[in-house]
Specification:
Length: about 240
């Protein structure tokens, strides 16, 4: 399998070229700049967190970069997770910890962190990763999402539980803007509503553990035998088809 494959997409705006690929240790300065733009100080990963993730999960750490400036536009760090461990974990730290020992014990991933300043780059990240996910037999991705609308909702509904808010819908979509965002990216299953999950004031520190299925992963035994370049040629068309269905 070629780990240095890249996918390129024309950005909207100023006609940028976006390069999407697996992350390398040399990307850390650019990734830190992105991280600091999008996360508060007590939430942001530092250089050693990133280095550990990239080293431990080389084929699960993906980034999009502006080729002219080298700026990181989006990053996604994932790790394999045992679903029992995911359910048992009290908080994000328990799910996101980098583990270097142990055999793969299932087909599920945990999204440690997604950061972006460019929505098109997020789509590029998922599209890029998709053929590798199929080839490697990953079936689904869990992640812990903030619910940034919770604090304001709770002020209006002090007697109702956060879980009620997590499940609330408007016009068939999650009420919370970030859960709505993930819903539109295919993360549609609400798994758990966890208190004291991570420091996030507007979410009252709650995290929504959500799950998205990797498109077409039900055919996993087949995809293992399909050459990666063929999956990569299919990726753009099929990814869009399954995302809009
Ligand atoms: C969540 C995130 C990755 C989305 O990046 P993106 O794909 O580039 O998309 P945008 O930031 O333009 O957001 C798109 C829409 O999602 C919704 N949304 C996503 N996150 C939101 C949040 N925290 N609060 C409110 N709305 C949010 C908004 O409706 C937004 O719509 P808008 O264009 O009208 O503002 C990015 O905002 C980010 O890095 N946030 C900080 C870190 C984070 O929360 N990561 C996810 C947890 S693992």
């Amino acid at each position: 399998m070629t780990l240095s494959s890249t996918s390129r997409a024309r950005g909207n705006g100023a006609g940028r070229t976006i390069e999407t690929r697996f992350l390398r240790p040399g990307d850390i300065d650019a990734l830190l700049a992105l991280e600091q733009t999008k996360w508060d100080r007590d939430q942001a990963a530092d250089a050693s967190d990133m280095a550990a993730r990239i080293q431990a999960y080389q084929q699960l750490s993906v980034g999009s970069f502006d080729t002219s400036s080298g700026a990181a536009l989006a990053s996604l760090f994932m790790k394999p997770i045992d679903v029992a461990q995911l359910y048992a974990a009290a908080d994000w730290v328990g799910c996101a910890r980098v583990e270097t020992k142990g055999e793969r014990s299932g087909n599920s991933l945990f999204g440690i962190s997604l950061s972006s300043i460019d929505a098109e780059s997020v789509t590029a990240l998922f599209e890029f990763f998709w053929p590798y996910a199929l080839k490697q037999g990953w079936r689904d991705i869990y992640l812990g999402s903030p619910m940034p609308g919770l604090r304001a909702w709770k002020e209006r509904n002090p007697d109702l539980a956060a879980d009620v808010y997590m499940r609330e819908k408007r016009h068939g979509l999650p009420r919370d803007p970030q859960l709505r965002y993930y819903y539109n990216k295919g993360f549609r299953e609400l798994v758990a509503c966890k208190p004291d999950y991570f420091p996030h004031p507007s979410s009252l520190d709650y995290g929504a553990v959500i799950r998205g299925h990797i498109p077409l992963s039900a055919g996993a035994p087949l995809w293992r035998h399909v050459p990666l370049p063929l999956l990569q040629r299919m990726q753009h068309l099929l990814f869009r088809l399954v995302r809009t269905s």
